[in-house]
Design goal:
Helices cover about 40% and strands about 20% of the residues. The protein is an alpha+beta fold and about 550 residues long.
Length: about 550
Amino acid sequence: MGEQSLKKIIEQGETITVEFKSWIKANSMKDRINLVVPELIAFANSKGGTVYLGIEDDGNVTGCFGNYDLQNICESIYEKTRPPMFTDIEEIDYQEKKIIAISVAYDGNTYATSDGRCLRRLGKNSKPYYPDEMSHIYSVAQTPDFSSQIIAESSVNDINLMMVYSLKEKLKIRDADSTLPEMDDMAFLRDLGLIAEVNGQVKLTIAGLLFVGKDNSIHRLLPQAEVIYLHYSKDNLEEYNVRLDLKQPIIMILDRLTEKVQNDNKIQNVQIGLFRLEIADFSEKVFQEALLNALSHRDYQQLGAVYVKHYPDKIVIENPGGFLEGITEKNIITHPSVPRNKLIAETLQRLKYVQRTGQGVDIIFREMVSMGKPYPVYRVFNDAVQLIIASATEHIDFVKFIVKEQDTKQIFLSLSELMIMRYVADNRQIKLDKAEELTQVSGDEVRKSLTNLIRYGLLETSGKEYMLTARVYEAVKSDVEYTRDKTVQYIRAKEMIAEYIKMHGSITKVTVQELCGFSKEQARRTLEKMQKENIIKLTKAGRYAKYVLY
């Protein structure tokens, strides 16, 4: 680990996977080992983590010094844990001080100290968690799907029968052919996997609690299952003016927050021929998909609530639990679905709240792109995911054209095709590698999308570049100029202009027009930009203006 990486960790502070421990406050190496071991056990019994020796609780770096041996530290930890724990240890130079980073991974084993103490990580703290308690609340059945685990302390009295009735009635509307609503309540819940029988007693699964549990039962059995809604006015973006703390079933939360968002929604009416398109600040489909993603993909073993922050120009949704292994911001659209809570995802699908199990990120992207809005932004912070949905409609003419084009030609543009069209409308051209990066699909797939767009008469090629056809340019009224020589970009124009000045001493605006195939306005803007970048300077003004290298 480098100094910059450690700096970021220190700035973020202690988390569910990071702990700081002082070196100077311990009198001996034995004392330091005794400080470290419980924290490593807590990490190993949770999600893994790292203890940083030489950093105070407040992030002040005091360092490690004196005589110490990293191998001896590892061996001491090994001896003081049951079963013996294997750790990774690293010495890091930071601001001329030594920091010792000791890491442990989660491997499914339950660890304790040699004297029998067991701990686990809860938020930023490590708490006692004795082996006999690990099966006290949840059933001992070990399953990779946390949401399908049976809650041992639950009973039929924890079921909200009105919520069961509500789910049935909503399903009748969403899917008239479904036979699920015709079942009796217990059969309905059993078929969905929301309840199970243990020794003749009805027990709720985690998913069952989250779909049909009473409010007080959710609070008692799974207190971290909370959604906090914060509303901010345009007059004060720092302090919320409305707050809702919701420990309720998932669908109840969805309905309540959808209503809150829709009440504040502004609608823009766009006329397309005889057809009128309504574009809301925040699409109901996008918001619901985003919120359900957060609720089904959050880590329910981790403390912390799902936050929905509602600003005038954006909605920010934050949920505990980072991306699952293999998923990043750069592949989130196309990565195969790996739901963290499979039973929750499957229940949402069977109740017809989502089209399929998985992330549904492509649905969010498609809706945002087709409505001319900025791309949704995903960010990962420590062990949490943040999604930002903007309200602005940036490109009405693009929206009009796409809607009309699909309707007239009876075509349905894929998400990849829409993203490419939107990018080219904003940036004048696109190359194959950029199209791959943008759409997150393979070369063969993106070539197919580009070929389709050419076949539809929407794009044309110029060398290795793909550009809007003149017809599309006129329709979308892009801010990007459609020039005679479509291969000349600013970077190329800049190089050509600089090379010309080296050969001839100076250049005029007229010469720039001829050299680059620019209009008067394009030549003017290009020369002004080069002046701002201190590449060229103006030697004469007016009619005989000339530009020389700076």
